[in-house]
Amino acid sequence: MPCSITSSAKISQFSAFKVFDKMPGLTLGDKLPNLEVETTQGKIKLHDYVGDSYTIIFSHPGDFTPVCTTELGMMAAYADKFAERGVKLLGLSCDDVNSHNEWIKDIEVFNNGHKVTYPIAADPKREIIKKLNMVDPEDTQSPSRALHVVGPDKKIKLSFLYPASTGRNMDEVVRVLDSLMKASKHNIATPANWNPGEPVVIAPSVSNEEAKKMFPQGFDTADLPSGKDYLRFTNV
Ligand code: BEZ
């Protein structure tokens, strides 16, 4: 019997292509492209900038826009928290460096004089946002509020994609960095609403025997109706 595609299969194939079409290039585990970008602090090659540090690359729809002015200012206000963790910052907005330099004056005054000490990349032709997967999927000409955490190995560890209408919460950016750094150091993961100092969970790949050796401080296993012992908390 000849193989035929039913109309619903055709539709779902078509939708899969549409979804794929919109699907971003750069995602978790991918290597950051080593682009050369113009910034308010001169030309930089992305890999040189990341060096051996965790780096946050965050995009903005445009200069002299209200939400972006609050976000870049809040990043400036949080600069010490990122520096304490050895984390570098790189902003990006789709205007040129002259415009960025003018805009920085507004950002600093509006945000109580906190200095914008991190570079802001220029992308007036909207080329970088495409290569870094920072485009708004609903309006491919516009950048979204995208944020990538890049690890010292230059790979993407975490990404946020917010629409232009929603400003980001910098406490959440700090919190996820703390989680990423802790998880990379120990064989653990952080549970919902976790904050530093709170118990973490032991990765499912670690057996109880291994956990006893890896976590000599001990661990508590949740008593669950299934009787399974997969939810184990410890402190690291
Ligand atoms: C803003 O930064 O306020 C903004 C930018 C583009 C669209 C909507 C808001």
From TrEMBL:
CDD domains in the cross-refs: PRX_1cys
Limits of the Thioredoxin domain: 26-182
Catalytic activity: a hydroperoxide + [thioredoxin]-dithiol = an alcohol + [thioredoxin]-disulfide + H2O
UniProt KW keywords: Antioxidant, Oxidoreductase, Peroxidase, Redox-active center
Protein name: Peroxiredoxin
Organism: Fraxinus pennsylvanica
GO annotation, cellular component aspect: cytosol; mitochondrion
Pfam families xrefs: 1-cysPrx_C, AhpC-TSA
Family, as annotated: Belongs to the peroxiredoxin family. Prx6 subfamily.
UniProt-listed Enzyme Commission number(s): 1.11.1.24
GO biological process assignments: cell redox homeostasis
Function: Thiol-specific peroxidase that catalyzes the reduction of hydrogen peroxide and organic hydroperoxides to water and alcohols, respectively. Seems to contribute to the inhibition of germination during stress.
Annotated InterPro entries: AhpC/TSA, Peroxiredoxin_AhpC-typ, Peroxiredoxin_C, PRX_1cys, Thioredoxin-like_sf, Thioredoxin_domain
Keyword Ribonucleoprotein included in the entry's annotation: no
Active-site residues (renumbered): 68
PANTHER family associated with the record: MCG48959-RELATED (PTHR43503), PEROXIREDOXIN-6 (PTHR43503:SF4)
Keyword flag Oxidoreductase: yes
GO MF annotations in UniProt: thioredoxin-dependent peroxiredoxin activity
